[in-house]
Design goal:
Elements (H helix, E strand, L loop, with lengths): L1 E2 L2 E2 L2 E10 L16 E5 L2 H4 L1 H14 L14 E8 L2 E12 L7 E6 L3 E10 L3 H7 L14 E3 L5 E3 L23 H4 L16
Parallel strand pairs: 4-5
Antiparallel strand pairs: 1-2, 3-8, 5-6, 6-7, 6-8, 9-10
Protein name: Ribosome production factor 2 homolog
Keywords: Nucleus
Main location: nucleus
Length: 201
């Protein structure tokens, strides 16, 4: 992989076992189908070399950048498993089956190719150079909007601030049981105002 006309990182992988596309006799995905990439294994998160391998695979296999993908177009899965210092690459086709509800049942069918890879020689960029290669120009950076953020998957999240509602002004349905009784509404004789008090002669 190159950056600024220099080698950014270079990784050598040895193939221990391979199964070609033609050896697996199943129907294939149409050419140009954008694959879903799945990475399994603790090494992809903890080991620095495997982290770079994962990043390199994402660059190679991610396909074109698109704004939206229809459900029927999600039919190709590339699965990478890191285990005991090796990387197992498997290619599957997604089959959408009837499930009796709105969400279909998904089955995976191996279509090939299949590779068992082992990590050999590596030439990785320094942390500073790697950070510089990921730097985005200011013109391409999305403008920050107040109370709007994005999660790791790119979904837009908004925060709405509301004032505390005054529950005393809340309109409620009037019920007969909540009405004041007539006896409660008539003031007590002892509680009468001076204007209403009787004058004894």
């Amino acid at each position: 992989r190159m950056f600024d006309f220099h080698v950014l990182d270079m990784i050598e992988l040895g193939v221990e076992k391979s199964v070609s596309l033609s050896e697996i006799k199943t129907s294939k995905c149409p050419e140009g189908t954008k694959p879903m990439l799945v990475f399994a294994g603790e090494a992809f998160e903890s080991d620095n070399e495997f982290k770079r391998v994962k990043n390199l695979f994402l660059d190679i296999f991610r396909g074109p950048t698109v704004s939206a993908v229809r459900l029927a177009g999600l039919e190709h899965v590339l699965h990478f498993t890191a285990m005991e210092g090796k990387i197992y690459l498997r290619s599957y086709r997604c089959l959408l089956k009837k499930s009796g509800c709105r969400t279909p049942r998904i089955e995976l069918e191996e279509i090939g190719p299949s590779l068992d890879l082992v990590l050999r020689r590596t030439h990785l960029a320094s942390d500073d150079l790697y950070k510089l290669a990921h730097k985005q120009p200011k013109a391409l950076k999305p403008k920050k909007k107040k109370n709007i953020s994005r999660d790791a998957l790119g979904s837009t999240l908004g925060r709405v601030h509301m004032q505390k509602q005054d529950l005393s002004k809340l309109q409620t349905r009037k019920m007969k049981g909540l009405r004041k009784r007539r006896a409660e509404m008539v003031p007590d004789k002892d509680m009468r105002t001076p204007k209403e008090a009787k004058v004894e002669s």
